[in-house]
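Friendly challenge for the regulars: who can give me the structure tokens for this chain first? No prize, just bragging rights.
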Amino acid sequence: MANTRKHTALLVIDMQKDFVEEDGLTRVDGGKAIVPSVIKAVEVARELGIFVVWVVREHDPLGRDVELFRRNFYGPGKIGPLSEGSVGAELVDGLVIKEGDYKLVKTRFSAFFATHLHSFLQSNGINSVVIVGVQTPNCIRQTVFDAVALDYQSVTVIVDATAAATPDIHFGTLHYEPFVELFSHQGCTISRISLFFSFEKTLVWNKFFDLISRIESVGTSGNGNGDYRLHIKNGASPMLDLNLAAKSDFSITEIAFIPSPRKSFPSKQTRRVNSVPSLPQQETLVCRELLAMAETRKHTALLVVDMQKDFLDEDRPISLEGGKAIIPSVIKAVEVARELGILVVWVVREHDPQGRDVEVFRRNFYGPGKLSPATKGSEGAELVDGLVMKEGDYKLVKTRFSAFFATHLHSLLQSNGINSVVVVGK
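First reply, four minutes later:
Bragging rights claimed.
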């Protein structure tokens, strides 16, 4: 970190009174507890010359720039959450924007969405970000995904300087399968506030986290530190892991050895039974959702996401376990959509064989003699058997997680009068 501090920014997200204080209009229950850690992160960042960016919400008092689902909180005679100029939009006590810091206003979950953050960081030579604030499943997660999609070299979440409504939600988000995938690759890490900015220990700690498959909160110890059960990937050295853990201020109650993320899930058969509804139930849910759109069918689109062989066929190295089970339901959804005159949009990945348009953390899969998943023109990029694009459908190619990220999907839908979407796929 010492050598890269000039190229690193600390993003402090939504540490405002309406999110953190007990009487906040949109209080995140776990927010108050992390204030000291966020204060410490900001202090040390300034000492090291790391750029501090304050990412905040400041909404129009009438709610004209807020998400549709929140607009009922705003209007004449109402003081909506995070309204510009309100007490609730202020930073919590102990956090102060100082000369040299930068303030960025956002109106959605991600700090990158419809803001100039990316161009601002690029123009200042920033290629790595450290993220603190609230809340983990919404703004933190979306900002992480967008930072990865924008190919930042290093994306780090400080686990005890971020929070959600409950510890289970907080740590559950970090266990979320796409997060596991991101943080199991070089460049994406989870750290502790006491270690992250310690130059020597940070390198050790980040290597330690490369061995972790899952972190589980199990309470608070007598010394006030959180107790955590760390689940280590198979093949890791117990002695090495314990020595590294001893250098942190984690209170370790147990280190459990479980398989690596890809193999830690139940078998495909078990997942179908426990995680996926039976086919009749699925068809009922899909049809019910689409039929509910019948009266507004001209303004509705069905997005079929990533239903390609490389993602679903069981013999593929990057296939989603259990994904094959949803194919009949997706077929049914497409059939019903066409019958109702609902626009069907096929959202697919089709990558350059050399991986030049894929996320940086996945580029090791591409190149001569490599797997090169979902490469344009390859069999793996084809739709799975049973799904066929027909005249009147629309095909949209994406290169990141979201179908909207760096694509023309939004303008396509808007120009065709679409204001509602139904999403199926993986």
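DSSP finds 14 helices and 13 strands in the chain. The first strand starts at residue 8 and ends at 13. Your move, everyone else.
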